[in-house]
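During the reporting period, our protein records have gained a structure token line. A sample record is set out beneath this paragraph:
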Amino acid sequence: MILALWHAAPVIQLRTVRDEELTADELAELRAFLNAAYDHEFGDEDWRHARGGSHVLGLVGAELVAHAAVVPRNLRSGSRVWRTGYVEAVGVRQDQRGHGHGRTVMLKAAEHLRATYELGALSAGPQNWPFYERLGWLRWTGPTFVEVRGEQRRTAEDDGEVFVLPTPATGEFDRTEPLVCEWRSGDAW
């Protein structure tokens, strides 16, 4: 009787590809997927932020069900500048949520970060903090800034919402120190 109630989660296959390896049709499919995953609030700047790096694609059969992008950025704290893999556009298809697909995609993204970058980073709202913390991400508790034409500007609205994932190349750091990202259009973090 108990076995009759148990349903196995669909098996997810992972594919990591560089942005330039995706065809125009695949990019259009990915953009439509992210728009649906974000309840049709995934704008042009969000799409630009998800481009230029690598994509971890979670597939069930031939269907895209989960995604995370890792794009290169530089983050600085004190005199240290890290070549950072910044995670963007983490999404799971609505009918596939609750099966662990987001976790699986993020674990694969973490493997990529550890092998490729000096630091992993992302920005997340409070509703997602427990998810990232369970995966080993550390919340940056120091003040955040964006550098615009050589000038640092406070991004107090982002304080406490930036997470980092140390890699073998990270070295020592103090999460209470100021953290600076380079300017980009849209959300700085």
The chain has a mean pLDDT of 95. The CA atoms of residues 148 and 183 lie 6 Å apart.
